[in-house]
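Hi support team,

I've been running sequence recovery on a batch of backbones for a student project. Most finish fine, but this one hangs at about 90% for roughly twenty minutes before it completes. I'm not sure whether the input is malformed or the queue is just slow. I've pasted the C-alpha cells below so you can try to reproduce it. Let me know if you need the job ID as well.

Thanks,
M.K.
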C-alpha cells in the first residue's frame, strides 16, 4: 500500500488549518509510556513529519491498564521500539529515530538537536534525566511540553526557553549540579497543585513519600496523551496562544463534570 499524505490528513481539514506546521516538524518524545507513547501515535495520525522516541524501559504487566503500547505480546519489549512500530504502521511517511537507552549524557544532545518541540513524559521518579532534558532543550531554544494524569483529569505545562525554568518550577536551583536532583523526586504538588478531593489524603501522602506508585487509569492517561498531541500542534502552528509555566492547563475532571442540557 502506498500512502498519500493528503489522504492521511484529509479529515483534519477545518480543525488543523496549518498542516505544514506538523508535516515539517520534528518532535522529540522522551518517555513512551501512557502519555508519551499515546501522544506519539496521535501525532503520527495527525501527520507529523518526524518523531524521535526515547525510553529505556520495557513494557511490564502493570502497564497494561493504561499504556498504548502495552499488550500481552509486547511485555518485555522496549517501549520506544514498540511505539515506533505502531507509529510506522499508522503513518509510514513519518520519519522515526529510536533512543532505546533513554535520555542520558550520551544521547541527550543528539536527541534535542534540530527538534522543533520536545515532549517530556519521563517517569516521575527519574528526576535526573528529566532535568537533563529540560536543560538541553532550554540551551537549544526548544520548547518542552509535559503533562500528567491527575485522578480523572490531566494537567499540562509548557516550558519555553525564556520562561520559568523547570528546575525553578519544582523548587530547585538552575545552577545546582545535575546529580543533586537524584537525591529525591521533585515535589508532587508541582504537577498536582489541586489534588482531587475524591482521592484519600492518605494516598496522596503515600505517593509523595514514595511509599506507593501513582494511581493512573486508562481514560486519564488517554486524555493526557490527547492534550499533549493537541498542544503540540497549537505551539508549532501558533493556532492558539499558550501561556508557559508557572501557568498550567487542566482538562475537565470526568469524575465531577456536570451535565449540560441542549438549548
Amino acid at each position: 500500500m502506498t500512502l498519500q499524505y493528503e489522504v492521511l490528513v484529509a479529515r483534519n481539514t477545518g480543525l488543523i488549518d496549518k498542516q505544514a506546521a506538523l508535516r515539517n516538524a520534528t518532535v522529540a518524545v522522551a518517555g513512551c509510556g501512557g502519555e508519551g507513547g499515546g501522544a506519539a501515535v496521535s501525532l503520527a495520525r495527525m501527520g507529523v513529519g518526524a518523531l524521535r522516541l526515547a525510553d529505556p524501559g520495557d513494557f511490564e504487566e502493570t502497564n497494561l491498564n493504561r499504556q498504548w503500547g502495552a499488550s500481552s505480546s509486547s511485555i518485555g519489549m522496549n517501549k520506544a521500539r514498540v511505539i515506533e512500530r505502531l507509529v510506522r504502521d499508522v503513518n509510514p511517511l513519518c520519519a522515526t529515530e529510536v533512543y532505546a537507552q533513554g535520555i542520558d549524557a550520551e544521547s541527550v544532545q543528539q536527541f534535542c538537536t534540530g527538534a522543533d518541540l520536545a515532549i517530556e513524559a519521563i517517569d516521575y521518579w527519574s528526576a535526573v534525566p528529566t532535568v537533563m532534558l529540560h536543560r538541553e532543550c532550554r540551551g537549544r531554544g526548544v520548547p518542552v511540553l509535559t503533562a500528567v494524569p491527575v485522578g480523572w483529569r490531566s494537567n499540562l505545562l509548557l516550558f519555553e526557553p525564556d520562561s520559568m525554568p523547570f528546575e525553578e518550577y519544582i523548587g530547585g536551583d538552575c545552577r545546582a549540579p545535575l546529580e543533586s536532583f537524584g537525591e529525591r523526586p521533585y515535589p508532587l504538588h508541582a504537577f498536582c497543585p489541586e489534588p482531587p478531593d475524591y482521592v484519600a489524603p492518605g494516598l496522596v501522602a503515600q505517593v509523595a513519600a514514595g511509599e506507593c506508585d501513582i494511581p493512573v487509569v486508562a481514560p486519564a492517561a488517554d486524555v493526557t496523551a490527547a492534550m499533549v498531541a493537541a498542544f503540540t500542534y497549537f505551539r508549532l502552528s501558533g493556532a492558539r496562544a499558550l501561556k508557559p509555566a508557572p501557568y498550567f492547563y487542566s482538562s475537565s475532571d470526568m469524575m465531577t463534570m456536570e451535565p449540560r442540557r441542549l438549548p
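--
Follow-up from support: It reproduced on our side and the slowdown came from queue contention, not your input. The first strand starts at residue 26 and ends at 30. No action needed from you.
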